[in-house]
Amino acid sequence: MVSILYLFIVFFASVLQAATGFGFSIIATPFLLFLFAPDVAIQVNLFVSILISLLLFIQIRRDVYLPLIKRLVIGSVIGAPIGVILLQLINETVIKISVGTLLLFVTVLLVLPVKMQQTNVRDLTIGGLSGTLTASIGMPGPPLLAYFAGVKMTKEQTRATTLAFFLLIYPISIGLQWITISINRDVWGLVGLALPAVIAGLIVGHFIFKKMNQALFRNVTYILLLVAGVGLIIESIW
């Protein structure tokens, strides 16, 4: 039963990842935490996300906004070690409730809508927040999702730039976890089991992406932010 639920979660999250560039960690992480121990859930999310990002990035690399990627990565290199430290010093439940609440607040601002101007400092800050969240709870997407929606990036740039960033920040986070808490042995088998569901989800998600217009893409972004915020809070309280 757990295996079936796991494969369903991976498939659905892979569809969203291919369609938006964000969906996997936002959808998969809260549900995987219901099925597995925190270290296993987060590490499976990291490894599968790298695989998904790599497979998709090969096709859409031309849409990447390179100047933004550089600043995001610089910020994440600073933020990732902070995330590891926070995970050691602060209760994980407190981190998740705080992030979930912040996401709900940001989503409300975006729906109003509140426009945001892109600046170098904000790029670095968002990169730092994403790095911190990746290393602590395995979920870098929400800050990027909120920021890109606020600065009104196109759906092509949003998806490609996000996937490129994930390809860089996820290995950094895995390396930090390997050093600090090691990689759980169960992770390798679960990643292998997920491969068919990942491939099927990417095919479906890529088809959906081609059918979406910019307005629908933005609405899906808001829904994912709400799901992430509410999911983190509910999972923490549970």
TrEMBL record:
The chain crosses the membrane at residues 42-60, 72-91, 97-114, 162-181, 187-209, 216-234. It is a multi-pass membrane protein. Belongs to the 4-toluene sulfonate uptake permease (TSUP) (TC 2.A.102) family. Its main location: membrane. Keywords: Cell membrane, Membrane, Transmembrane, Transmembrane helix, Transport. This is Probable membrane transporter protein. Pfam families: TauE. It is found in: Cell membrane. GO terms for cellular component: plasma membrane.
